[in-house]
Specification:
Distance between the termini: 27 Å
Keywords: Hydrolase, Protease, Serine protease
Oligomer: single chain
Domain Peptidase S9A N-terminal: 15-429
Biased composition (Basic and acidic residues): 18-29
Strand content: 25-35%
InterPro entries: AB_hydrolase_fold, Pept_S9_AS, Pept_S9A_N, Peptidase_S9_cat, Peptidase_S9A, Serine_Peptidase_S9A
Organism: Pseudorhizobium endolithicum
Shape: globular
Amino acid sequence: MALSRKPVFHNLPSPPVAERKPASDTRHGITRTDDYAWMRAENWQAMFKDPNLLDPALRAHLEAENAYMDAAMADTQALQKTLFAEMKGRIKEDDSSVPMKDGPFAYGTAYVTGGEQPRYFRIPRDADHRDEASRKLLLDGDKEASGKDYFRLAGLDHTTDHRFGIWGYDDKGSEYFTLRIRDLETGEDLPDVIENTGGGGVWAPDGKSFFYTLQDENHRPSKVFHHIVGQPQAADRLVYEEKDPGFFVGVGGSLLDDFIYIDVHDHETSEYHLLPTKDLTAEPSLVAERVEGIEYSLTEGGDVFYILTNDGGAKDFKIMETPVEAPGKKNWREVVPHEPGRLILSHMAYARHLIWLQRKDGLPQIVIRDRRSGQEHAIAFDEEAYSLGLQGAAEYDTDVIRFSYSSMTTPSQLFDYNMATRERVLLKTQEVPSGHNPDDYVTRRVMAPAHDGELVPVSLLYRKDVALDGSAPCLLYGYGAYGITIPASFSTNALSLADRGFVYAIAHIRGGKDKGFAWYEDGKMKKKENTFKDFIAAADHLVKQKFTSYENIIAEGGSAGGMLMGAVANMAPEKFAGIIAAVPFVDVLNTMLDDTLPLTPPEWPEWGNPLDSEEEYQWIAAYSPYDNVGPKPYPPILALSGLTDPRVTYWEPTKWIARLREKAPEAGPYLLKTNMAAGHGGKSGRFQRLEEVAFEYAFAIKIAGRM
């Protein structure tokens, strides 16, 4: 199929040409040559902590790429400013959350006009949160971020007696967080400084110590430490160490303050260890030994634990209960049975109720179960496609939980829900200061036939006055990995595209859990190519139904969704007018062969282990975007990267762009934007992030010829 693309880039300078330094690698008798392997900095661990250590030659190349990108996008500067102003105008600058009640206080966050970072505050439990005079400021994110190019807060967790709080920050984008302890009465930080953590801590009930995870030299949270306030970090007790590099460790606590949870997991297997808070020096006890492919998670319900698990063939999960005093698997008893097609996503327990979030027929539901009577009811909604968020409560002895609701046309609404009376109280509706009329827009869900007969849900947003004759441009977004579902939620940013005549579409492709756990399984390991074929099928269906046309589709995805972008670019370049790949995981084979990288061993259950298995090597080699670049009619491609990104390292998109230029020099152009002061999530401030979205959307609008 020949695609007539609009010529939108004019008078471009010559792009940077990366030096080729062939490096050969032989696995399973198969030899590959990588001309750009040199772009992987040998000192990457140290560089993530101190970006100034980047090799000067690499820095010069990345800066040359940024200069080329600037030249290509120079004519969008005014558009970017307009888009930024629109997006910022839809955000209530001095917004604040509805505080969550916990003991004598209620805790919340707020922003000030012009502020980039949140402010954490508390008020007396029954005070009016709109009365700013009642607020006590606990942590000012803007003040802490002052003078830093990058700054990301990891929240504020208070002690049971509400005297102290742990707060964490990352000021390089490398996701090595520093923890500090704040006296919430005086506002001063204690001398304690805990470095290289995973980003949070869990207080012991006495408020004199806490537990945290430490990132190892390969950026994996592999150890849990116990820190006693006032002691140096070097004196912290090692509580748990995970020896298997394929597993990550997390630490949490129960609402009743009875236990510290140590969660050991990869993408398909989990294991819990419990430390009773009545004896903080005890060794953690195992709940149920890890079994490959079996997942479980705990929530405490007084004298029992409720366990969400897929054990026993419960592919879409079930809920069990077991005595707190004897939580081993032999004592698990079924409470909520497995129901094929009803995927239970998460669960929470309170004094009188058990609740869970499930997805059925592609849509989320919240279900409430009375623990005494066993009666169940679901919180009902009417729209064709929508999103739910379950916040629960900060207290165990409560009948009131909190949840959020939105759709692609309906701004987010926050509710308190009484589980006993079934009363729903609207606490807050997301304000759009510049104005928003939901009646001007349409949200729909259509089903795209896939190559094997499956139906792929596609959520759509567009203005009612858009002509559905194939002429509309379309931004088609996809992710499709790790079982993550992309919700059909309200996005103020997407309105900037819809208002310019775009159809904004989300393809709910395999690899996510949009249609149950089987939907995830059919998009991983040897079935990974289903993810890519589903996305192409979504594009085909939108064209067939005249929502858009091939010459008007701009594809977008980030991280694992960026790998999706690289794969569909290789498989069907003629079906896309442009591609936006944010922090794209495109060098899949090389990364999965490098077991020193942070995510490689834990990722093997998702993609395969090419080190040990020739078959799995061949799976990945067949689709790895970097390895399959060839002389093809690629559309214009924009790749975005973060220098200190520990998840998708900067060299992946850098190598990809270099190879695209080498193999298909007449196609493209290929643009690379590397944020030299950020990591995986891009810029950290709420408005700084809008600048990046405005840049991406400006590229899409330019490609669509709508400037």
